[in-house]
Amino acid sequence: MKSGLDLSHIDPTVRPQDDLFRFMNGKWLTESAIPEDRASDGAFYWLYEQAEKQVKQIILDQAAAKAAPGSNAQKIGDLYNSFMDEVRIEQLGITPIEKDLAAAQAITSRGEFLQRLGEFEARGLSGLFYTYVSTDNKDSTKNIVYLGQSGLSLPDEAYYREGEYQGIRDTFLLHVQKIFELADIENAQAQAKQVLEIETLIAACHWDQVKDRDAELTYNKRSFAELTALAPDFDWQLWITSSQTPSGVLEQVVVRQPSYFEGLSKLLASFDLPRWRSWLTWHLISGASPYLSSKFVDENFAFYGTTLSGIPKLKDRWKRGVGLVEGSLGEAVGQIYVQRHFGENAKTKMVELVANLIKAYRVSIEGLSWMSQETKERAYVKLEKFTPKIGYPDKWRDYSKLSISPDDLIGNLAQIAKFSQDYEFAKIGKPVDKSEWFMTPQTVNAYYNPGMNEIVFPAAILQPPFFDVTADDYAANYGGIGAVIGHEIGHGFDDQGSKYDGDGNLVNWWSDDDRGEFEKRTKKLIDQYNQLSPEVAPDVKVNGALTVGENIGDLGGLTIAYKAYQISLAGKQPPVADGYTGWQRFFMGWAQVWRSKYRSEEAKRRIAIDPHSPAEFRCNQIASNLDEFYQAFNVGEKDRHFMPHNERVRIW
Predict the structure, then answer these.
(1) Cα separation of 438 and 458, whole Å?
(2) Residue 164 DSSP symbol
(3) 45/51 Cα distance (integer angstroms)
(4) What is the 3-state secondary structure (H, E, C) of 404-421?
């Protein structure tokens, strides 16, 4: 019988009752090395590598074809070729951004600064705030622009103020100086110091990671008049014109962090010309560095790859080229990827799995002792309105308005930025397109979108170890992709997703008592994770408040996947396969998808900014909370996985 488990990575010296993660993956953890061009490795990355190679072949095929001008094949091939033409890129050096660089260094006033900033942003520069278009959280039938804090070069505001990051700040200062020197910028050392100084002031206005994920705190709807009153010293009209933002786009906006915009306005009011000029110059060169000559590429990687994530070696150029095409023409590539690599049988089986997971959630909600019947009924309504999307979109993105040249890489980047901006802003005032996908089919991931109350599973994740469509028994599939499905549904009921109703609106459908009971349980989960330190970074602790949403997703996902597996058995006992019961194989399926390891620097960086817990805890801590795990492996009080019953958390 084919079980869908890969037993080759098991460490027989580790008991599953003590460490499920290292029992299932220990041999691999000991024997494997993280590839030199990556910060981490594991099951996700193995699938990512397969998809990357498949996408490379698709791109090469398009590049080799005599494609019609303006066709997707022409754009894919020419974009890739423009990136791969190293000889031309080396010859050009800094010249592709020379004019912009001179303009940045020549500014003499706040007005000129905002003028140049808008012009650069229209061509892809990251600015002082980000914008994106999505459903209005209080009216999911309409699209609206969201504005959020930005302007920093380091991963998070904490990097500018906490003592543990002093070494990174020192290295960053040297990095900025080196980039300025490579670009022949005068007074490189002094200008680098000015960049860090102004970014430290910007960072002081930023919200921290925990506050920034609060759905209610970050929903602040403003008219354009209210926006200009909030940040009066940012010349909005000048920026709108110079950034080529269509009129009317900012008539109604959601400001995610109002105090950030107030603080930014005050910084601009006392406009420090040398600092802001240095900041603009720095962001212009830094943003372009991965696409300039090798001296800029290498210095950019030395900081952002090696210093921040511990990666010793830059990725091969073809991999970076594939990444560029993926980020720019992802659905054009995805359409071919699906034709070549995705079987409809997987989609059919997934429909069945999703149906069982949703049924299991309903059963689980019915059995909740802490939730009132009134709130349960509203939860059922939300559950019934979940929309699953599996494999690939029903309609593909139209790239006809995007122009790509075979010999102008920096120009192509500007075209891509403008096309993407126009595509997003064109949604304003039009009905929400519920068929749109926000990941490509070749992405090894999944997501829940609260504004559309949808769960989305791209084709590339529907493969072993997550999903083996050829397995004779589905225990491992339910522990793998079943728990992923459950996780994404669970986001609709996590600490933030549970604030949205079935139509995707930020509406409170809970009674106060039920919400209080829910938060008691989430608090226990936060406290659990606050105690955990990953093996490769024992000096840092997981941020339980930052990761609670994903932890609730994991906990609910595995709990409900187990129940769904029970439903699929229709009362029959699962067979024994590979020497393990069905219940044991379910948890082993869960453990094998978390096979991964991180460099120490990357683990620390992720703990600072990533709402996901380290893989070892996504596996082990969740299992320790489930009574079903104790039953499957006869976990007793002397086993390391044991947690007293009253300390275990069960939410859904």
Answers:
(1) 10
(2) G
(3) 10
(4) CCCCCHHHHHHHHHHHHH
pLDDT digits (tens, 9 = 90+) for 250-280: 999 999 999 999 999 999 999 999 999 999 9
The CA distance from 631 to 636, in Å, is 10
3-state secondary structure of 139: strand
Residue written as tokens 């974009």?
79
CATH superfamily of 343-393+437-647: Collagenase (Catalytic Domain) (3.40.390.10)
Q: Do domains 108-291 and 343-393+437-647 have the same CATH topology?
A: no
Q: For residue range 506-556, what is the model confidence (pLDDT) as tens digits? A: 999 999 999 999 999 999 999 999 999 999 999 999 999 999 999 999 999
Task: Spell out the domain ranges in the chain.
Answer: 108-291, 343-393+437-647
> Is the C-alpha dihedral spanning 489, 490, 496, 501 positive or negative?
positive
In whole angstroms, give the CA distance from residue 231 to residue 262: 5
CA dihedral 347, 349, 352, 357 (to 10 degrees): -90
Residue of 651, 615, 645 lying closest to 19 (CA atoms): 615
Whole-number mean pLDDT of the chain? Answer: 96
Is the predicted pLDDT of residue 472 greater than 80, yes or no? no
- CA 534 to CA 557: how far, in whole Å? 22
Q: Are 558 and 626 in contact (CB under 8 A)?
A: yes
CA 615 to the chain's CA centroid: 15
Name the residue among 595, 583, 652 with its Cα closest to residue 620.
595
Q: Taking the model in full, what pTM does it have?
A: 0.94
CB 182 within 8 A of CB 296: yes
Confidence of residue 1 (pLDDT cuts 50, 70, 90): low
Which strand (E) or helix (H) includes residue 629? helix 627-633
Q: Which residues are CB-neighbours of 515 under 8 A, at least 6 positions away?
A: 508
Closest CA to 199 of 276, 306, 89, 87: 276
Question: To the nearest whole percent, how much of the chain has pLDDT over 90?
Answer: 97
Alpha helices (H) in 109-165, listed in sequence order: 110-122
Say yes or no to pLDDT of 473 above 80. no
Q: Choose among 163, 157, 255: nearest CA to 206.
A: 157
Q: Tokens 């699953």: give the residue.
A: 388
Strand partners, 107: none
Helix (H, G, I), strand (E, B) or coil at 538: coil
The Cβ of residue 498 has, within 10 Å, a number of other Cβ atoms equal to 25
Element containing residue 111 per DSSP (H, E)? helix 110-122
Q: Which residues pair with 222 in a beta bridge?
A: 253
> Taking a C-beta distance cutoff of 8 angstroms, is the pair 592, 466 a contact?
no
| pLDDT of the residue at 186 | 95
Edge to edge, the sheet with strand 129-136 lists 129-136, 139-149, 252-255, 221-223
CATH number 1.10.1380.10 is the correct assignment for the domain at 108-291: yes
Residue type, 641: H
Q: Which residues of 378-414 are buried (b: 16+ CB within 10 A; e: fewer)?
A: bbeebbeebebbbbbbeeebebeebbbeeebbbebbb
Which residues fall within 8 angstroms of residue 166, CB to CB, at 6 or more apart?
none
